[in-house]
Amino acid sequence: MYDRTKGFRDFYPGEMSARRAVIDTLEETAVRYGFREVGTPALERTEMYVDKSGVEIVEELYSFTDQGGRDVAMTPELTPTVARMVVAKQQELSKPVKWFSTRPFWRYEQVQQGRFREFYQTNVDIFGSAEPAADAEVLAYAADALTELGLTSEDFDFRVSHRDVLGGLLASFEGEVDTGAAIRAVDKREKLEVGEYHGLLADAGLSDGQAEEFDGLLETPEDDLDDLVAFAGSEQVESAVTNLRNVLDAADDLGAREYCTLSLDTARGLDYYTGVVFECFDSTGEVSRSVFGGGRYDDLIEGFGGQPMPAVGVAPGLAPLSLLCQRAGVWPEERVTTDYYVLQIGDTRPTAARVVRDLRGRGNVVETDVAGRSFGAQLEYADSINAETVVIVGEQDLAEGQVTVKDMESGDQAQVPVESFPGEHERPTYDDLA
Amino acid sequence: MYDRTKGFRDFYPGEMSARRAVIDTLEETAVRYGFREVGTPALERTEMYVDKSGVEIVEELYSFTDQGGRDVAMTPELTPTVARMVVAKQQELSKPVKWFSTRPFWRYEQVQQGRFREFYQTNVDIFGSAEPAADAEVLAYAADALTELGLTSEDFDFRVSHRDVLGGLLASFEGEVDTGAAIRAVDKREKLEVGEYHGLLADAGLSDGQAEEFDGLLETPEDDLDDLVAFAGSEQVESAVTNLRNVLDAADDLGAREYCTLSLDTARGLDYYTGVVFECFDSTGEVSRSVFGGGRYDDLIEGFGGQPMPAVGVAPGLAPLSLLCQRAGVWPEERVTTDYYVLQIGDTRPTAARVVRDLRGRGNVVETDVAGRSFGAQLEYADSINAETVVIVGEQDLAEGQVTVKDMESGDQAQVPVESFPGEHERPTYDDLA
């Protein structure tokens, strides 16, 4: 018996059917928004990640040298790959480029609740628009996908911020402030003790007084955003505040405003974000970590050797999303379903096979005996796969030109002429025939 | 600009939409047959493949040592993984176990037409039945999936054989014959020169006269299978021939017989096959290699430490299947489709957004301006995404309570009251409204 690899999971049919239903919803919503599916490779050159995130990233990668001497890594995220793909065909692609895909990614990190070394995400991105309408479309997509899953505004909350509000405020303090380090500190704020957090801000160059003032600014309510503009007195903060408002206005037109809360301490850890950023949280707080996040990354395409091209995206991950859906009671039932089991007694295979083919041809999920089992064993199996209706094709019945249609919930059954089954019905049940 | 990894592909939306349509067909057919989707990891312990296939397999693997010191490999095929999963829950799973999944696999091998280092397969397997009905269900699934794709009996052919017919015939020759080596030679027969092929048979222990006789036996037509039984005089060949006939009879009941041809030189290279084996070929021969194959592997579960459990499966691969579909003219069109583009002129976003939401809510694929572009640029974009209908939401029209609905194929357009759009229609077109 062989072991699974730690942090990698097997999904058996019951659990998989729930995951598939959720993935289908995430994807069908993306399709309705006009996002187009792309297919992407599992391996990329390791240097792509090192260039983007620094050499420390290698510790988190499943990276190795392939048989041809290439340094490659199993993709830890999609964004660099789609950026590479956009750059490769930047001229010929019609803009904006709106892409989605669902697939696994791999990171060598601590396994914990809702976090595995192999994890699935649906990535949804728009390349080629710097307009607030693009940020809003990404927010609206995410909100629509979650409400399609059955979640409501009571369940989730998009905490929305703008990197340049944070950056601009930090830049307005006296002294040498390391903006990147300070933003990373803000990003970890909720997870840290106050002392640790202030220690990180101090490392980033903020005095105790400045740190306290900065914290106060982060609490600024939405109606008072002009206070931040006044405090900073910089064009950077002014245009960031304007952009943030425009994005929220556009989200309002698309019905997504009600899910958004201003939250200036939402920073997103990744260095490549440049504008509006947001994270989805469980409104009840029961799921304590961010469920997923997204935002604007206008510099990445140019950084990958393309012409400058703005971009914004979001990437719901299935594992944390399942925690939220389970908390809210909307995770799909983890069970297989079957429309028909066609039960064979005696040598009735030709007729049973005809019935099976007719029912499958109408789009039904149909199983029949492939193991030469007894009546009892077949009925037990039909029950184990949650068959709704069992069609019993028995030798004696057939001699009279009949089959028996049995409703598995009530146990009711009726004989019907085999000639007229399934007849005109797409999906005949006991109730249709009795 | 970064390079792709050799043998790995990017799929842009046009090509991806065709691939997705084909995968959907392969999967929907499997669902109708009552196969259940499973989710499987991308990494397994390398030893699992070495134990099964010998240490030479490592040369074909993307294998490495992970950060935790585990020897792991990117899965080169699914069968060992599903065998591991069956063994892990063998008691509790209801039998037969009928599973499918579509996903990429990875092998470091020569890149050629229809063969890449990253390749997609839909694996379909039945565990827990040794009955011919199970082999037949797998054949019928494969035939149904291909005909659903638009292929006909003129296009493809399942060459069906039985490992024990070959094995039993070889065993009936005088002298020491290495059955495995001889079967591998047969498997390569079509690709080799006659001399090379006979050389391999000689290496396997067959004299020239025996090799010639063996070749003659492989040509035995279906009606004369009893001649093989008589020649071998062994129970092994007799029961293999009986089993082969029973599988073909069962396939006949399921409508798959017409796609099957007896072909005793179809051996399937993999050592783990034990009974009926088959390969799908292009009937015209234009696609020269086997498109995909399948068969029975009754010993694998026990070899993986489980209770003995028979199994049979098939695994259509997307790349060779695309060659066949393209040859037959049934590969789906590689283009994106769009139901509506909602064009905004002036400050009409709130109304345009309402129209967009209504149309998306009815399940349509809808794009709108997210880049603040001109009328002309928007219309050009709508054309580039093959929008069927453009809904023009202009300031002047709106002042009169109207929007314009334009059919993009004919160019015809009509004004309709914005209040009644989209109205009762799920998917209103120019023709509905004019």
UniProtKB/TrEMBL annotation, chains A, B:
Predominant location category: cytoplasm
Binding site for L-histidine: 77-79, 107, 121, 125, 268, 272-273
The protein's name in its UniProt record: Histidine--tRNA ligase
Annotated GO CC locations: cytoplasm
Signal peptide limits: none
Subcellular location: Cytoplasm
Similarity section: Belongs to the class-II aminoacyl-tRNA synthetase family.
InterPro entries (alphabetical): aa-tRNA-synth_II (IPR006195), aa-tRNA-synth_II/BPL/LPL (IPR045864), Anticodon-bd (IPR004154), Anticodon-bd_dom_sf (IPR036621), His-tRNA-ligase (IPR015807), HisRS-like_core (IPR041715), HisRS/HisZ (IPR004516), HisRS_anticodon (IPR033656)
UniProt feature, compositional bias: Basic and acidic residues: 422-434
Class in the EC hierarchy, top level: ligase
Catalytic activity: tRNA(His) + L-histidine + ATP = L-histidyl-tRNA(His) + AMP + diphosphate + H(+)
Domain Aminoacyl-transfer RNA synthetases class-II family profile per the UniProt entry, residue ranges: 20-434
Keywords: Aminoacyl-tRNA synthetase, ATP-binding, Cytoplasm, Ligase, Nucleotide-binding, Protein biosynthesis
Superkingdom as given in the UniProt entry: Archaea
Listed GO MF terms: ATP binding; histidine-tRNA ligase activity
Bilayer-spanning residue ranges: none
Pfam families the UniProt entry points to: HGTP_anticodon, tRNA-synt_His
Location of the region described as Disordered in the Swiss-Prot/TrEMBL record: 408-434
NCBIfam families cross-referenced by the UniProt entry: hisS
Record keyword Disulfide bond present: no
Record bears the keyword Ribosomal protein: no
Listed EC numbers: 6.1.1.21
Record GO biological process: histidyl-tRNA aminoacylation
